[in-house]
């Protein structure tokens, strides 16, 4: 009986909480040509960011139909995330690189507006999903 009372008091002051889920609505900007696909990776930590599909928590490929596509990712647990994406212009399912290993196709990351000498980190691209719907714009960038 005492055990039941302790359990009842515990549940009263510490109710079981359902996992809170949100929706991420991404608008892709700066598309020069409405062709190819957007290949997107969503990460919940720095491991593998920005291009390792095996460590991403979500992976999506979306056909581009206009110059400002919207990508919706549903049922995401609240938390910290970062997005990396690329425009696969020739539909070969990889980032084409030049002789120096620099990207030849447009790419983008959450919270990254410009290209510098160093690849952005998870911390640079990180954002918090802590509401039912988070809208974000991601700008496609080119090296040259």
Q: What does the average pLDDT come to?
A: 91
Number of helices: 2
Structural class: mainly beta
Termini separation comes to 73 Å
Strand residue percentage: 35-45%
CATH topology: Immunoglobulin-like
Let me know the largest β-sheet.
5 strands, antiparallel
Classify the oligomer: single chain
- The overall strand count is 8
Low-confidence stretches: none
The radius of gyration is 20 Å
What overall form do the CA principal axes indicate? elongated
**Helix/strand order:** HEEEEEEHEE
CATH architecture: Sandwich
Provide the domain count: 1
Helix content: 10-25%
Account of the 3D structure:
This protein is mainly beta and 144 residues long. The chain has a single domain, classed as Immunoglobulin-like. The protein contains two helices and eight strands. The strands form two sheets. Strands 2, 3, 5, 6 and 7 form a five-stranded antiparallel β-sheet that branches. It has a three-stranded mixed β-sheet with strand order 4-1-8, with no helix packed on it. The longest helix has 12 residues. The protein is elongated. The model has no long low-confidence stretch (mean pLDDT 91).
């Amino acid at each position: 009986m005492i055990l039941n009372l302790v359990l009842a008091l515990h549940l009263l002051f510490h109710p079981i909480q359902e996992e809170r889920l949100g929706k991420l609505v991404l608008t892709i900007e700066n598309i020069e040509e409405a062709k190819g696909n957007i290949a997107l990776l969503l990460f919940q930590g720095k491991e593998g960011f920005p291009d390792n599909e095996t460590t991403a928590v979500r992976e999506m490929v979306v056909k581009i139909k206009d110059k400002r596509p919207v990508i919706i990712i549903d049922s995401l647990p609240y938390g910290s995330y970062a997005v990396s994406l690329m425009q696969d212009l020739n539909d070969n399912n990889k980032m084409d690189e030049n002789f120096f290993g620099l990207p030849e196709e447009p790419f983008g990351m959450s919270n990254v507006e410009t290209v510098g000498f160093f690849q952005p980190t998870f911390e640079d691209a990180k954002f918090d999903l802590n509401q039912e719907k988070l809208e974000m714009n991601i700008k496609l960038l080119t090296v040259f």
